[in-house]
Amino acid sequence: MTESRQQVEKMKTALRQAGLRATAQRLALLQVIAENEDHPEVEELHRRAERIDPKISIATVYRTVSVLERAGMIQRHSFEGARARYERVDKRHHDHIVDLESGEILEFQSNRIEQLQSEIASQMGYDVIHHRLELYCRKR
Amino acid sequence: MTESRQQVEKMKTALRQAGLRATAQRLALLQVIAENEDHPEVEELHRRAERIDPKISIATVYRTVSVLERAGMIQRHSFEGARARYERVDKRHHDHIVDLESGEILEFQSNRIEQLQSEIASQMGYDVIHHRLELYCRKR
DNA sequence: AACAATATTGATAATCATTCGCAAATACAG
DNA sequence: CTGTATTTGCGAATGATTATCAATATTGTT
Lengths: 140, 140
What we know:
alpha+beta, 5 strands
């Protein structure tokens, strides 16, 4: 964690560039999300952020998560019948497989599908701004 | 509407086959949804059903819609940041394009994409039970 | 057609996730 | 260090949906 200092500086800069103040709460959440390999929901983000800033409130987590999303610094997903989940934005684009039994979420990527999506939209006179593709699956 | 009588009989049979009683409210909603070419939400379904059965309550619409979905008689969709929408189940499978400007919902179908989806899932050890594919678009 | 057994309804309260309002605390430009 | 605009924490409010429960309607059986 020798680089954690520099990480925090980067985050501060990023926040300010987005016109946001670099508060302890925002930094705590950015740190938590940067460390994530999974797709936690707000409650879980709150729990994890509390380990860095014990006085952070759930309202602030909600607010921050939405501010950071608007700033393009994190990504929100809301799977069927579940609460919103969040993940880092610095990975390559991917879609999700939801394991219906365990609730586990896997990632996959298909250029072919992306390609077909824009072709279809294009034929109908549209540009794809973003999309949502989720496969609800059961182990074979 | 000479065939409406027979339509209603069919619906009654379908309900009973699903182990459900054929109530006026359920028939009203099935009728409303059968006539739909669009993707109305609960509030709108209620309004339309009231024209057939004026005493139907919103609670019953919520309940019925969920019962009918569980029975596979209608389909629910919940697009980003919007309330659930419903449509008939007797059309060929399709996915949706959401016009970000107007909120309008178009339908499209791609066997190639479906194909790729099962291939990908299969490679990861899964069977696709159902999926959700939505293109959020802007007119070109 | 009338009856009992059971499912469904309507009205309303409750729930759940999320957002809002506002006074107190904090960040940051000067 | 100071003033001002942001942000926070708390709790109340919201909006969509679900649950509760007494009253009513449906269905299988006489």
